[in-house]
Amino acid sequence: MNRVQLLALIIFCLTYAFIITERLHRLKAAMLGFSLVLLMQLVEQSEIFSFIDFNTIGLLLGMMILVGILKKTGLIQHIAAEAVSYSKGNAWILLVFLASLTAVVSALIDNVTTVLLVGPIALAVADVMEINPMPFIFAEIFSSNIGGTATLIGDPPNLLIGSAAGLTFNEFIINLGPPVALSMIVLFGLLYFWYGNDLRPKRDGEMSKGEFSVPKKLHDPALTVKVLFVMALVLVGFILHGMLHFEAATIALAGATLALIVCPVDVEEILLDVDWVTILFFSMLFMLVGTLEHVGVIELFATKMFSLFGDHFRALTMILIWASGVASAVVDNVPYTAAVIPLVKHISQLGGYDPRPLWWALALGACLGGNGTLVGASANLVMAGVANKAGIKLDFKTFLARGMVLMLATLAVSAAYVFWRYL
Fold it and tell me: Rounded to an integer, what distance in angstroms lies between the CA atom of residue 221 and that of residue 207?
């Protein structure tokens, strides 16, 4: 490891230490790391901004604007009240329903978009029922990451792997569907173990939505129709984005633009609902991780792993799941996956191995590892931002205590599945 690589790694670890210990707000810590990278001239200023994934930033901005407009209709509160009514006040049924819905939708569209849509409903349900919102927050985050693992388009690492390996949409579902289903069962078991008492109804008997303090009528039915029409167009665009040759950010920003034009809303008021802290933090994190990739730190660690286990296919496959999971809990899984893909190709060619078990191991590790820490996946930070706007704090330590347990459990299930089916 040369001097530049060592400095980049020290700065990243320092930044991460501030985030974990909460000595600094996560945005302040990220900005400190970003500033140190530039001041020490590890990367040129003109180059570091190219590390930002503007597709993710544009997707976040567009969907936050759309959700901000949707909130003004009162529809989210009504959906929450209806869900409570039909469940007869059973919080556990509601949690399972919302988490399952999130997992399915996350398999079809980006999981960030999913938590932006379903997350506010989950928080409204907890508020309406006057129960602890944390199980709903964790259910949304974890189920979005697990569900996105199942398909080619559900999570960015899968897109990279599918493109590099020539794997189809159906191959992802057939091969990754079973461990994803098992991981959802593990999730529900852990949530019940952690929060079973909090999810018990406070009183017996049927509950109706009339008992809750929610609006009886939509604030603006005409606005509701317009924004739902635009959101339907956006969702269709996400599903067909491959055929349309549009990036997700293009579809989301075009939808937000259309909604602002056709909906009678105050633009400045809507922009106040945008979580700018999360967007800025994402930008800083992209630049920090991009710096590690740029100077070769990520590839260095990945190469070392493969040099140790390249001649032992079974051990390599198992190590790949666990190493990818741990790495993806610490750094963004997109640059990690991009660095490991050419190494998987190289090792499989040298050893004459069938690379498909390695591809599935990499996909499962990279996607499920995102549940390990608050910064492990985009959906984690977005949902934390949604919760923060509702006055609910989700700190790094609280997330780590739950996320790490779930990550290890789902990785264990995935490792057993891969070993049984392919090795």
Answer: 26
pLDDT tens-digit map of 237-274: 877 766 778 877 888 899 999 999 988 888 888 888 78
Asked if residue 162 belongs to a domain, the reply is yes
Residues 332 and 198 in one domain: yes
Give the whole-angstrom CA distance, residue 198 versus residue 205. 18
Q: For Cα atoms 234, 236, 238, give the angle at the middle one, nearest 5 degrees.
A: 70
Task: Provide the terminal-to-terminal Cα distance of the chain, rounded to the nearest Å.
Answer: 34
Distance, in Å, from the CA atom of 289 to the CA atom of 89, rounded to the nearest integer, reads: 44
In a domain, 181, yes or no: yes
Our CA angle for 169, 171, 173, nearest 5°, is 75
CB of 340 closer than 8 Å to CB of 293: no
- Tokens 């003004």 label which residue? 72
**Rounded to an integer, what distance in angstroms lies between the CA atom of residue 413 and that of residue 103?**
17
For residue 346, give the nearest of 307, 319, 314, 317 by alpha carbon.
307
Distance CA 187, CA 406 (A): 7
CA atoms within 13 A on the CB side of 139: 35
What's the token pair of residue 30? Answer: 């990220």
Residue 83 near residue 97 (C-beta atoms within 8 A): yes
Sequence letter at residue 388: N
Cα–Cα dist 134/296, whole Å: 38
Instruction: Tell me, yes or no, whether 38 and 143 share the same domain.
Output: no
Provide the CA 68 distance to its chain's centre, in angstroms. 20
Q: How far is CA 358 from CA 33, 149, 209, 410, in A?
A: 34, 15, 50, 17
pLDDT on residue 337: 79
- Looking at the domain assignment, is residue 223 inside a domain? no
Phi-psi region of 247 (alpha: psi -120 to 50; beta: other; left: phi over 0): beta
What pLDDT does 193 receive? Answer: 94
Do 25 and 159 belong together in one domain?
no
Handedness of CA 237, 239, 243, 247 (dihedral sign): positive
Rounded CA gap, 115 and 141, in Å? Answer: 7
The predicted pLDDT at position 213 comes to 47
Residues contacting 257, CB < 8 A, separation 6+: none
